[in-house]
Amino acid sequence: MPHTQQQFASDNYAGICPDAMRAIEQANRGSAQAYGDDPWTVRAANAFRTTFETDCELFFVFNGTAANSLALAALCQSYESIIASDTAHVETDECGAPEFFSNGAKILVARGEGGKLTPDAIRAFALGRTDIHFPRPRAVTITQPTETGQLYSLEEIGDIARTCRELGLRLHMDGARFANAIDSLGCSPADMTWRAGVDVLSFGGTKNGMAIGEAVLFFDRALANGFDYRCKQAGQLASKMRFLSAPWAVMFETGAWRANAAHANACARHFAAQVAGLPGVEILFPVQANAVFLKLPPDVMAALHERGWVFYNFIGDSARFMFAWDSDRARIDALVQDLRDITGARLSPEGS
Ligand SMILES: *Cc1c(COP(=O)(O)O)cnc(C)c1O
């Protein structure tokens, strides 16, 4: 049963946005060719190429784990390695799928502020061991925005890309929340990716308001060689592809992908501004996208749970709140009010 009242535990709690739903309905009028040979998939692919201002190669898959792990598998041999941040989704939340789909390429994790990799960390791995006993670094993956909602600036992406090129590494970007990053930085998708030196992008649709689906974009088309077979073998070739692709087409054409992200980001900023300074409440990371991580005393967390709020605690003793295209201001304000009540009651002796 769905929650009767909106929760902010994950941006995946949101439903399907109206434009994506309308696209599915429109794609459902009559039949169409299967496996991507349909007009909707052509329209979506062209919308991507227009939006990214380049003739990239792209593929639609069901989810982010598939997009990331198949993309990374395409960049590495089984005896090579992938440099990632220690909090990267590919490392902590994909059940070993990148290693599995690459037949054993190893993920090398580097510690970084807010989940961000640095050129120095990349260089340390790439140059630290060059002997036959160590899995040769071949790819770097960065998450934009990171799992804790931090952004790489265009300069930082450019610096990382230059480091990669210098060291013979390919650069992948996990853009599960790509649209949120675009909204925050206010730059073009091209500037945040291929113009900065990104080779392959996983672009998230699900957290942006679709029912399902991520896109994998190869800016260097040579790297996409055989990727269609990789998708099929991995069970990621949708037979009724049009239902994956139509929402992309419509959401690019109407601009909903940007508007959805802008709303989510604005909700995160609003929430953070309301809870800043509450006694015992600490905002753990700069709020640069649609995530707010709060450090809360255990009794405050318990009291929130008692009042019916659902949230995750998977990073330390923090509480994560995520905002999406459908986040309701009244519901956010109700959460803020509960936090005010709970933290205020802790301070006053009569409070219970
Ligand atoms: C949600 C998410 C993904 C995709 O996860 P799936 O559940 O496989 O769709 C990938 N990367 C990051 C950073 C995410 O937050």
How does this structure look, described?
The structure is a single chain. The chain has 352 residues and is α/β, with parallel strands linked by helices. The protein has 2 domains: 239 residues, Type I PLP-dependent aspartate aminotransferase-like (Major domain) (Aspartate Aminotransferase, domain 2), CATH 3.40.640.10; 91 residues, Aspartate Aminotransferase, domain 1. Helix content is 42%, strand content 15%. The strands form 2 sheets. Strands 1-7-6-5-4-2-3 form a 7-stranded mixed sheet, sandwiched between helices. Helix 2 packs across helix 11. The longest helix is centred in the C-terminal third of the chain and has 20 residues. It is globular. The protein starts with 17 loop residues before the first helix and ends in a 5-residue tail after the last helix. The mean pLDDT is 96. The structure holds pyridoxal-5'-phosphate.
CATH topology of the largest domain: Aspartate Aminotransferase, domain 2
How widely separated are the two ends?
Answer: 32 Å
Bound molecules: pyridoxal-5'-phosphate
The profile of the biggest β sheet is: 7 strands, mixed
Helix content: 40-55%
| Uncertain segments | none
Average predicted local confidence, pLDDT: 96
What percentage of the residues does DSSP assign to strands (E)? 5-15%
> What's the number of helices?
14
Number of domains: 2
Main sheet: strand order: 1-7-6-5-4-2-3
